[in-house]
Design a protein that fits this description.
The protein is of the alpha/beta class. It has a single domain, classed as Protocatechuate 4,5-dioxygenase, Chain B (3-Layer(aba) Sandwich). The strands form 2 sheets. It has a 6-stranded mixed β-sheet, sandwiched between helices. It has a two-stranded parallel sheet with strand order 3-4. Helix 4 crosses helix 9 and helix 7 packs antiparallel against helix 9. The two termini are about 30 Å apart. About 50% of the residues are buried. The N terminus is likely disordered.
Length: about 270
Amino acid sequence: MNTISKSPRMPVLFVPHGGGPMPLLDEPNHRGLTAFMRHVIQQLPRPKVILMISAHWEEDVATISSGATPAMIYDYHGFPPETYRYIYPAPGDAETAKKLHDVLIEQGVAARLDPQRGYDHGTFVPLMLMYPGADIPVVQLSLLNSFDPAAHINIGKALSSLRDDGVLIIGSGMSFHNMQAFFSGKPDVKGRSEQFDVWLTHALTDETLTSEERERILSRWEDAPQARFSHPREEHLLPLYVCFGAASQSSQAAEKVFSGLLFDTYISAFLWR
């Protein structure tokens, strides 16, 4: 079945996916984030296909899931037994996966298909809340284990044309991700996370910046206030960079569609229309 045909340009969304399966467990610290993920689809046209870029998949080249019925990957530990029985039965989409692969290759981005890749929690937790009917095909795209910010922006640019084909691009990560800080109880954590959140919000939403200026700022993210405190390892930030790349050619500022506290740290979600 042909799942790709012309349709209005789809938006691009970056969501903080929370801690493991906790958004699905009515965990008190996650209630605001859970409510956001349940309701954000009201701001989105219905996609034909969802392209997920999860913080929990890294490869040496851009790798695309291409299986018809992806399995579940329970890549978390120490949670209640029911969290290891979750099922998200949305189908894959080999046609879209192949198209994405070809688009990346055409744009000079090394890429490969992976028919075995399942849904990790960075994919299935947000989608269980956003699209619980599991009736929209899902394709996943890995991060690069080089963690090169410019390379991830370029991947986003390369795949941006899929937005015109009914593909909703979702980056699933965290705008702040320091596991020790989440549970430290230290009084300075909130303020330090806020400094990075202010920087990130400015870079993405300030309408006086050009796309080129945003890209320059984001590419030098380690110069941001509290950068390495906010992301000791940047895998949860990089899905946002793919999103930015996919939206950057419109020169349009992002909208901050969620801002909240998670374990006393600031987290944010962004939408490009």
